[in-house]
Input
Amino acid sequence: MIAQSKWQNLKRWVQQAEPNERILGLGYVRCVSAQQIRDLQSQHNFLVIIVQGTKWISSSCSDIAVKAGQGIVFPAHVNFTITNTPKDGAFYALVLFFTPEQISSVQQQYGKILQQSQAKKQTFMPFTVDETVLSAVLHLLDAYQSGLAPALLDHRYTEILLSLLLSGHGNSLFQLPQSKWSDKVSQLFSLDPAFDWSVANVSARLNLSETTLSRRLKEEQTSFRQLLVDARLGHGLHLLQSGIEKRPIAFVSELCGYQSASTFSAKFKQRFGMLPSELQKTVI
Output
């Protein structure tokens, strides 16, 4: 009965969250018709908890269904195709992103627990969200609504990470790849995707020559231009999917650094398989 009440609280939060409210590290997905988004990738690990409906996930390794009451941890830098399928007229999910600093803090404080947890087999599979994890998530949502200071919010994220570890489902969050130059460049782009980024201003911030930066990105089988496109399209996906921007696509494209709405729409469809206007129509 207590767990059921907590699920209702979580569902209420996802349903009633203000579309125009940007909360760093915390988001949701709400839609009234199926959304299929291909080539989805994040720079960070993140947790998704399904509140209503089913999320279908396809990768090079497997096809997975994540149902209401379940969660799944997405590893960073891996491509997925996802399909959000409504049930009883809607799909609702909560999304939590974890920063490297938050994960590192848990590693330092709870190394023994992490070591015991990592002795178990690593799998990319959905899991039933138990009451401990659910309570930790609700504590975080209450903290945001109460306007707690960022330092205190970090403690709430730590509680979630620790509850995932103790329940045996957070191991992959701590399998961090070694820092890459492409990650550093992408992190800069994420600060302001619409900014007029150039090889010159990025290399200056990273204390590299332009030639060295281009060479190192090539060694990692990517390029400055590709990373910038990925960052801008990813930002557009976030704005549209979370319902933050329901204004004309031309306005959204400007927020993502594109002066031409048609160019933005074409690149968005090429990357994710849906036009921005099509995705926008599915969002609650």
Notes: The beta strands are 26-31, 35-40, 46-52, 54-58, 63-67, 70-74, 80-85, 91-97, 127-128. Residues 224-241 form the longest helix (18 residues). Residues 11 and 51 are 6 Å apart (CA to CA). The chain has two domains: 2-174, 181-282.
